[in-house]
Amino acid sequence: MDGTPRGRIKCSINTWTGIVYRIPRTELEKCSERKDLSQSGVYFLFGTSEESSENYVYVGQADVRKNGKGILGRLLEHKKNSEKDYWTEAIVFTTSNDFLGATEISWLESYFCSLATRANRYIVKNGNEPSPGKPTEEVISDLQNFAMYAEMVMGVLGHKVFEPLIKVESNQSNAEPSSLTETQLFLERKSRKSNILLKASCVQTSEGFVVKQGSMIETIDSHSIPIGIKEKRKYAISDKKIDREGILQVDMQFNSPSYAAAFVIGGHANGLTEWKTADGITLKEIEQSEVTQTNA
Fold this sequence. Notes:
- The chain has nine helices and ten strands.
- The protein has helices at 64-67, 70-80, 102-119, 137-156, 177-180, 227-238, 257-265, 271-274, 283-295; strands at 9-12, 18-24, 41-48, 55-62, 87-95, 123-124, 183-190, 197-205, 208-211, 252-254.
- The strands form two sheets. The chain has a six-stranded mixed beta sheet with strand order 1-2-5-3-4-6. A four-stranded antiparallel beta sheet has the order 7-8-9-10, with helices on one face.
- Mean pLDDT is 89; it is low at 170-180.
């Protein structure tokens, strides 16, 4: 809309009544002439913590029948709210035929908030879990179809807020082999600092390495620990993602195997040799084998 990919973006699909906007916080005032933004709809506020670099999302709804200003009016209110100064862009969902009433937006807000919470990629900033209301079966059927398109467009706009870090394995016989499994890896080491036997499991995905919930984490840092991992561990402990016994309470994603291993042991680590399969094959050996097969 503004001639730049980082500016405002409007999305639509020919077979769908939905209209989607991605609006940077700094560009809200430019949207005053957009009539569809004066309608009812649902919206997402996205931001990143400057301290921990974790992603934030807030899921909200705006009903023109209540405040007379619709979605844009609600976003401008959020912009003035000092308690919501973390967000840098908004994703807005409304429709070309303005069919989203109070019942519909309440259900969508609750559905999207629940989906984002289960995916656990972003910290959901909603203080209370939104109520879905009591729509009829027919309305829910229409809204599920609307939500399916909305989830797809959200991913296209760069936010995987609805996608779990680890895919659920499919039982469908016609699924592609590569979509069924992701590489399962394990780390086991006796810590010299706390004398604890560290046991962690990890999944290698197309996006990186996910240290799984339930892994035993060393809570004492070594002097050699990378500064980025030191900060990540610090906030994981303060946010109770690691409990007092050192047990990881949530799945956590890392870009490299070494950073994933360093997070577990609290110091410098070579992830290519630390992470192994259940049969004891190192990640380095797996990658070397894949290169050999490719060159053969």
